[in-house]
Amino acid sequence: MPAPCLPVLLALVASAPDPSVAAGAAVPASAPATNEGEEALPLPPPADVSTTPAPEPPPAEPVLAAPTGSMSFGTAPLAAKKPPPEHGPFFAGEPVSDTAFANGPRRVGPPRFSVGRGAFCFVDDSGCKASLVLTADVGVGVNIVSLPTRLDVPFSQYTFRGGVVFKPMLRLRDDGWHPWGVGLVGSWSRGTAAPTSKSALESEHTDTWRVALVNQLWLSKKRNGFHLDLDLGIVRSNVLGSPGKFYGSHAGLSANWGGLGGLFLSTDLLDRDTRIIFGFRGNGIAAAPVIAMVLLGLLAGGAL
Amino acid sequence: MSLLAPVLAILLAQQPGTPAPLEQPTAPEPPPGRQAIGPLAAEPLPEPEPAPVPEDSLVTAPPARVEPAGPPFYSAADMATLRQRHGLDPNPPTSERKPVFRCWVADPTCGLVVEINATSAFAYRARQGKVTDTGDIIKWNSARVQYDVWVSIPTMTESRGKIRYTRLSLGPKGGVVASDSKDIWGNVGIAGRYWFSRKRFAPNLEFTSALVFKVAGINRNGNFDSARGPLGFTADVGIGIGGFGSIIVGGQFDSPLAREDIPDVERTQGSGMFYIGFRGNILWGLPAAAAVGTHAAATRQIKAP
Questions:
Q1: Which fold would CATH assign to domain A126-300?
Q2: E strand spans, A147-204
Q3: pTM for the whole thing?
């Protein structure tokens, strides 16, 4: 067929009534191409010349579902909303219950001691996007000295710790929750002196500085939820009672209830001087009065 | 163009002209040679005879019970029966009192509580004397002060209506213990409280146990600084009123550090104490003031022999 006649034919065919439209059926998605290499147009099927022309059909009902293989018209069906990925045995939220503590923590609402509805919290919680870490702890353990004497003696310390932790996935998604948190903390502690008799004259205590990367794994979405923290970092401290400071490695694992407090197990790995500590960590809001009262008692007693 | 003439003629014939009148649909005619059969008319049924009605039913017929169309499917009477059957309170409360100091002082109506407790106690201390002398024990009267942070987690609860109450709380605790001679210990352990009622001043049983270890004291050079001590153990029980205060009785044991490979200057004797005193939340003031005062007095007045 000569190419110049094609527009005329299309115009004539398009003006013919389409029986399929009158029946309320959807228009097929595509028609066979007239010529190979030409673009396929959504043509209606050719009319049946044997049928009697029908009067002007009423307007067809709006098509709500697009035919298969075509998204060119009609209302697309709504896709099912993807469930949040935090479902699991440990990360499920608080189970639905008919009972509740009359004065307990509210199940909804921003975390305690927070601004911006959890954008920043002064006491860490499961719904906080960023939190201040401010704790004090006491711990006890063992100091293992790799001298020829192979000495291991009790070791105790008290520590002040501060830093910031973030939950990056909470920042990315407004309506979701994610169990991962990450942050940076620094700490200072004063512990028992090194167990060598010579060091007693040089150092009566062991001071330690640490900087550590904190990875949090929140096992609950509840308020004051339970979470595990893994600290990995560097430590700078006396070694074997020497007055100089040396670098080493620090690792710690702690089990915490929100930002209120928790139990920890940590180690400082220095050259031939290893300390393994177990202790209790409390938030600064609770620890500060304790420290203040101890100091006040010592001061009033003339010990300082 | 001559080839297109027939096609155009066919297409033009399809154009709508004057529409032919549509015929009304008619029922299909039956095939010839067979008589049409219509539907059979239903025969009238004979009227049933009335059944005999007993005379009693005319007198005692109860009115038909009207069931609600939708939820709730249990009426208030049903719920009352259910409560009675299970021994529940027939009139459960719908509201509860507010605790003083919000939930910073332990209360049965609170969930998880973080509390700061201060202890002031009389202590009867003892320390091992010369190792070579059997039964050489040094004893003296002293005082004990303790500051602890408790994380009290409700581990056993009871419900009344829709309100939950703590019956037993358990949780980690840690803090500082002080006594005479500038002795300061740290302690890490667990604390629990069993509530005997739900009232504001509910009596309760408190029990704690912890590892205790020397943090500071008079060291081998005679200075007040960090001090070494072996791991010890402390425990106490108490009877409390609300979360405000309790009378406690307990003890502490510090194991000796006397191995042969330890230098003499590092060795410590076994020691311990029994104590009886008062422990309370610092928020209402008296426990905190008593503890600070006791600490100061013990530091000034009591010297360990």
A1: Porin (2.40.160)
A2: 151-166, 180-192
A3: 0.71
